[in-house]
Amino acid sequence: MNIQIYGKNKCFDTKKAQRWFQERRIKFQSIDLPRYGMSAGELNSVKKAVGGLEALIDEKHRDAATLRYLAYDEDRAQKLLDDPTLFKTPIVRNGREATVGFRPDIWETWK
After folding, report:
1. CA 66: distance to chain centroid?
2. Taking a C-beta distance cutoff of 8 angstroms, is the pair 46, 70 a contact?
3. What total of structural domains would you count in the chain?
4. Which domain holds residue 24?
5. Confidence of residue 52 (pLDDT cuts 50, 70, 90)
6. Mean pLDDT of 9-26
């Protein structure tokens, strides 16, 4: 397994996800999303795995409402790339598979 956890340092769910993998002695790479962001290729891969951009948007973020008014997915994706704090976290990747949020039920099935 090649686990990557994209998250925010102060996000409770990100810390829970890291702890979940640590308890099972599964190695993972932790990426600070606000600091390093996500590349366009990674965003497309995650978007396909989770079923669209809507699943990636943090509805609790103060600027999330502005994304609803953008007409095209390309504009929304660019806004997410420009401001990585808009992502819902944690985003956990395992190759082409990905999840958003704390989802141990799905992680259990990854081999």
Report:
1. 19
2. no
3. 1
4. 3-107
5. confident
6. 94
- Rounded to whole angstroms, what are the CA distances from 95 to 2, 21, 102? 6, 16, 18
Q: Which two tokens stand for residue 111?
A: 């081999």
Helices (runs of H) and strands (runs of E) counted in the chain: 6, 4
Residue 90: closest CA among 52, 51, 46, 27: 46
User: To which residue do tokens 């998250």 refer?
Assistant: 7
Do residues 32 and 7 lie in contact, with contact meaning Cβ atoms separated by under 8 Å? Answer: yes
C-beta separation of 84 from 37 below 8 A: yes
Buried-exposed string 11-42: b where 16+ CB fall within 10 A, e elsewhere = bebbeebbebbeeeeeebeebebbeebbeeeb
Is a pLDDT exceeding 90 seen at residue 27? yes
Give the CATH number for residue 75. 3.40.30.10
For 86, counting Cβ atoms within 10 Å of its Cβ (0-12 exposed, 13-18 middle, 19+ buried), the class is: buried
The pLDDT value given to residue 75: 87
